[in-house]
Amino acid sequence: MGNKRIEVVSESMFYTLMAFLHGEYSGAEIASIVETLTKGRVQLGPATLYTILGRFKEEKILVETRTDGRKRIYRITDKGIQMYYNERERLTQCLADSNTWEEEQR
Which residue, of 33, 38, 63, 71, has the greatest Cβ tally within 10 A? Predict the structure, then answer.
């Protein structure tokens, strides 16, 4: 992969982190969870998903816990959990700023 640290959490990355909060999963399971969670609004194609998983593994946000044939199972690390909650807080603040701005403009 690359040597560049993850500085921006994309929507796909955010939902991937969210899905991993509740267990160990394979890539296919994560794609299904995200699609269900977002009612189909976010669909993780294989290229996007496996790029995210590779980057997360490289940055120790996820660890591979086992393999079953070609299927790899991952779990989120403490670093990944912290990344999720930091991004959730950032998004919450963005919404609060938006609401404040809209109220001030009325």
Answer: 33
pLDDT tens track for 54-90: 999 999 999 999 998 999 999 999 999 999 999 999 9
Give the C-alpha separation, 78 to 86, whole Å.
12
CA 88, chain centre distance (Å): 11
CA distance 7 to 10: 10
Nearest alpha carbon to residue 14 among 32, 34, 36 = 34
Residue 52 CA to chain centroid, in angstroms?
A: 8
Task: Tell me which residue has tokens 């403009």.
Answer: 105
| Assessment of whether the complete model's pTM goes beyond 0.90 | no
How far apart CA 40 and CA 44 sit, in angstroms, is 10
**DSSP state for residue 5 in the 8-state scheme:** P
Question: E strands of the chain, at which residues?
Answer: 25-26, 62-68, 71-76
Tokens of 34: 């995200």
